[in-house]
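Sequence and structure are kept together here, with a separate record for every protein. An example record follows, reproduced without changes.
>
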Amino acid sequence: MMQSKTKILKNTSIAFALFLAGLTTLNAQEKIDGVAVVVGENIVLDSDIDKFKQEVELRSEGKVKISNCEMLEELMQQKLLAHHAVIDSVVVSQAEIDGRVDRSIAFFTQEYGSEEKVVEAYGFNDIEDLKKELARVQKENLLIEKEQQKITEDVDVTPEEIRLYFKGLEEKGELPEIPAEVVLNQLILKAEPTQEEVDRVVNKLKEIKKEIENGASFKLKAIINSEDPGVAQNGGKYVITKDSPFIKEFKETAFSLDVNQISEPIKSAFGYHIIQLHKVKGNQREVSHILMQPQISDEKLQETKEEIEKIVAEIKEGKITFEEAVAKYSEDEETKNSGGLIMNPYTQEPSFELTRMPPELYPRISELNKGDLSDIFYDETREGEKMYGVILMTDKTDNHTADLVKDYVRMQQFALAKKKEEEIAKWTKQKIQETYLKLGNDYKDCTFKKDWKKENK
C-alpha cells in the first residue's frame, strides 16, 4: 500500500532534521523577505518548504507528491507545538538531547562512511559545529514530542474501538499491508587489549605529559600522537561547555583542571586521553587533548573468534540455549540483560522491517529463517572496539494484509494513533485562535485543513 503523506511527514529522516536548524525566531511584527509564515515567535522560510518537499519525495521514492501549501501546513503544525511547549514550560533534559545527537551522528556516519564526510556533506567547520546544530534541532524535536504527549496523555482506545476501526478500514478496502518483519537477538564477544598494551599506552601518555610540562608543544605532540580523527584540523583543541555533547569522562576532567594544568591519563569509551585546560571564559573551557587507543593483537582477535565458535557449537548441539549463552558469555551491555534483543535504532521497537534496517545488519540476516543462527561476523565500533558476534532470528513474519487477530497489537497502535491525531487536531483548532499567525502573501490563497488564515478574514 502506498505510504500516506502524513506517514511520510511524520517519519522525516534524521538527516533532514538539519534543515530545522535554519528555522529561527524573531519579533513577530518584523517583515523579512522569504518568510512563508510566522507562528508565535517561530518562522518558516520559503526555502524550508522547498527542502522538506524534496525530502518527502525522496523518502517516498517519488510516490508521494506534496504541494507547497500542504508542506507549509505541516510545518505550521510543528511550529505551533514547539511554541506552546515553551509556553507550557515543557522540560527537555540535556541528557535527552545528547542521546539524540549521538544517535544522529551514528546515523550520519553509517550513511556517509565517516564523520569527516558528514561534516563535509553538510558544510560545517567540524564535527563539534555539527553537534551544536543537531543539539538545537533535537531540542525542538523533543519539545514537539513532549507537547504532543502532554496533549494526548489521557487518550486510550477500548477493544471495541479497535474492532470498529479495523472494520471501517476493511469496508473501505483500506486495510494496511504489514511489511515483512524480523526480531533479532545477538551474542557479542569483545576482543580486549592486553594489560601490557594498556600499560604501554598509559605510560606513553604520561611521558608526553611530562614533555609538554617541560616546554614541548601540546599541538605538535597531538598531531604526532593523537588518534582523534579531528586532530589534523584542530590540533586536538576544543571549546566546550558542560552542555556540549562530549563524553562524560572528558567533560568531568576538563572542568576539574586549573588553567594550563594537564590531566593524568583518563579512560573513556574511545581509549585513553590526557587533557590540558588553556582558558576559562564564563561557562566555556578551551581545552586540548591527546587520544591514544590500545592496540588489539591479531592473536587476541583469533582467540576471541575461536571462543565464540565454541559457544555457537554448544548452542547448535543443544548443550545451551541462545538466551543462556547470552546471559553467560555476551559482553554487549545494551543487550546482555534482554537475552540479546536488538532494538531498532530508528523506531526504538524490538522489530525491523526486513527492507528497512541498518545497512550493515541486512546482509547478515537476509537469508535466515525463524530460529536460524547467522554466520559469525566481525565488527568494529567508531570508538575502536573490536568484536565478534552471532545473531539469532527469533521471529519472522511475511508481508501480509492486516488481520485483526494476528496483528491486534499493531491495529491497537494504529487506532490509538488516529485517536491521538484527532485530539491534537482539536487542540490545534483552539490554539490557532490564541496564537499570533502571519502568512506571507504567496500563501494567502492556500486552502488549508485548519483555520491558519484567521488573520486574513
Q: What stands out?
A: The longest strand covers residues 386-397. The two ends are 39 Å apart (CA to CA). Confidence is low (pLDDT under 50) at residues 1-33.
